[in-house]
Specification:
single chain; 95 residues; alpha+beta; Alpha-Beta Plaits; four-stranded antiparallel β-sheet; two-stranded antiparallel sheet; 3 helices; 6 strands
Amino acid sequence: MKDPRDIIIKPVVTEKSMELLADNKYTFIVDKKANKTEIKNAVEKIFNVRVEKVRTMNVKGKTKRMGRFEGKTPDRKKAIVTLKPGHKIRLFEGM
């Protein structure tokens, strides 16, 4: 079993993800090989909350240019975690 801190890489802090906080939904960048069950268990263990639902999506990297050189940002996996009513993650409060 993987360490939960290897599965959850970092939270996503954008305008859209901040609007989802009103619906008790939190957004994270997660390990590309992690499945929904692993993500659920990792969030519950790290933040001591109860997870109701996990939605995941694979985000393709964008092509970027610097002068005549072309590169690509890395692909990543994003998870939107819905918590059960009454549970909150303190990391996101006050943003």
